[in-house]
Amino acid sequence: MGNETHLWWQRGIIYQIYPRSYQDSNGDGVGDLNGIIQRLDYLQQLGVDAIWLSPIYPSPMADFGYDVADYTDVHPLFGSLADLDRLLAEAHARGLKIILDFVPNHSSDEHPWFLDARSSRTSAKRDWYIWRDPKPDGSAPNNWLSYFGGSAWEYDEASGQYYLHLFHKKQPDLNWRNPALKQAIYDSMRFWMERGVDGFRVDVIWLMIKDAQFRDNPPNPDVPAGMETSSASQLQIYTSDQPEVFDLVGDIRDILDGYSERVLVGEIYLPIHRLMAYYGSARGGCHMPYNFQLIQLPWDAEVIGRTVADYEAALPAHGWPNWVLGNHDQPRIASRVGDAQARVAQMLLLTLRGTPTMYYGDELGMRNVEIPQHLVQDPQGINMPGTSRDPERSPMQWDASPNAGFSAVAPWLPLPADYAAHSVAAEQGDPRSMLTLVRRLIALRRASPALSVGSYAPLVGSGDVLAYVREADGVRLAVALNLGNQAQVVPLGAAGRVLLSTHLDREGEATDGTISLRPAEGVIVAL
Ligand code: NOJ
After folding, report:
1. Torsion angle defined by CA atoms of residues 18, 198, 291 and 288, in that order, rounded to the nearest 10 degrees
2. CA atoms of 34 and 369, how far apart (whole Å)
3. Over the stretch 498-519, which tens digit does the pLDDT of each residue have?
4. Alpha-helical regions (H) of 422-481
């Protein structure tokens, strides 16, 4: 089972860029496409295969680009369509793929479609959005809440109806029961496929269609802290994961299948047994319904080991696995588990079976950058103090120069005081740095079919140790990870040789059937 029997997105590694925060090329404090082009050599040397860009479309930026005002253009802040074409050409010349974020659940309230829809009840586009009459007492049509806090309904004085917005009130939900709306969005997806984009990460794909009867959601008995006013305080029975969604996913998959080797990734926060339905059955589904288990689980070897087993067991025969450690909506891994365990976490991500998605800056061990409430920019954090996502969106730390080599001017979000120590410039010359570790892990994965496409078999999942074997073409690699802070001795069943340790200091060491792990150490052993 060599690498060549699998598609690029199965063999490969996806690297997420939050474009506002990667590289500013024109001195406005916000990252842009030309900045990303300048950094393609870095990404090629890192060894990733594909870049997923968070939204780059024209947008009033109420949710930093997830409020799209034009589905077929580029925001001037980020550049132009010509810049995007150049990014595609430059990336492809280096063997890198480009995946765009696509946001079909909602548009901006400044999208011409919504301006038209809002202009009158008889507008031809009125039904492209979700409008309902008030209850007799004038209140909202039902109890649905927004992910960003408060009612999911906004009253429109002029037309006397409410419109639905599962996120910000500047992000009205599109009505996926309207055939003309569907065709308009599908046309814009084809527009990007024709331009040579290699796939989509589809935003909140599991929310795209809602209960036709608009029934109230029941309360959630287990409300996460700080989320009392948000949709998380209700069970999303009628606003998510509706049976009709699979037809939409199938349509989108058909569009991508009209082109060669494009990938469909779906953002889906659901338990494993529900997630699997998004691989498709009667109709095609997502190639990769995002698997957020590693983001949501406690850092506990037994829990993670059990979950990997459950996930592997639940995958349909045609389902290719994937793993994600962080993204622009979640606290950074180094802040969640600490600097030492963040190294173990990278080894886990890059040795599990399935496509890994890395989040920019995690390869440096970047941490959350806390921001005082009065400076918070994220709408979620403004509406619900304590839940801001700004901390994980801080600028990429390139070097020790002012503004970390990110920009000539003060960046849109602050840098941490110690950015120089956790920068590319500092870490690339350091043989024990996180960046060196991640580069070595990626190189090993690329060179080894056992790691990139091989089988997975659990070895140990008890106490603080998680261990497994990856195997292909007769090559067997054991991975042993110490998720705790005590030394451990792990039986591997056979003698072998250490290929890599998260401490980067015992390569080549012979092992005799067991491996000794220091606190927070992970190793890969050729058996
Ligand atoms: C999920 C995106 O990842 C998040 O950043 C955004 O706020 C919501 N969807 C709404 O588009």
Report:
1. 170
2. 25
3. 999 999 999 999 999 999 999 9
4. 424-428, 434-447, 449-452
Residue 3 pLDDT grade (very low, low, confident, very high; cuts 50, 70, 90): low
List Cβ neighbours of 115 (8 Å cut-off, separation of 6 or more).
none
> How confident is the model at residue 2, as a pLDDT?
58
Best CA proximity match to 318, nearest among 291, 290, 285, 364: 285
pLDDT at 462: 82
DSSP character string of 162-174: EEE-SS-TTSPBB
Query: At 461, is the pLDDT very low, low, confident or very high (cuts 50, 70, 90)?
Result: confident
Average confidence (pLDDT) over 215-237: 95
Q: From the CB of 101, is ligand 1 less than 6 Å away?
A: no
Instruction: Collapse the DSSP code of 24 into the 3-class scheme (helix H, G, I; strand E, B; otherwise coil) and give the result.
Output: coil
pLDDT band for position 1 (50/70/90)?
low
Question: For residue 218, what is the DSSP state?
Answer: P
pLDDT for the residue numbered 442? 98
Beta bridge partners of 16: 52, 359
**Residues sharing a CB contact under 8 Å with residue 14, sequence separation 6 or more, in sequence order:** 48, 49, 50, 51, 52, 99, 265, 355, 356, 357, 358
CB of 204 within 6 A of ligand 1: the answer is yes
Quote the CA–CA distance of 139 and 332 in Å, as a whole number.
39
Summarised one tens digit per residue, pLDDT across range 470-489 is 999 999 999 999 999 999 99
The pLDDT-based confidence of 91 (bands split at 50, 70, 90) is: very high
> 32, 109, 173, 203: which is the annotated catalytic residue?
203
Q: The tokens 């999303």 sit on which residue?
A: 236
Q: Is 173 a catalytic residue?
A: no
**Which ligand 1 atom minimizes the distance to the CA of 66?**
11
Contact 464, 483 (CB under 8 A): yes
Tell me, yes or no, if the pTM score tops 0.85: yes
Q: In what order do the strands lie in the sheet with 50-53?
A: 288-289, 263-266, 199-202, 97-102, 50-53, 14-17, 355-359, 322-324
| 3-state secondary structure string across 172-185 | CEECCCCHHHHHHH
- Is residue 300 annotated as a catalytic residue, yes or no? no
Q: Is the CB of 100 under 6 A from ligand 1?
A: no
The bridge status of strand 199-202 relative to strand 153-156 is unpaired
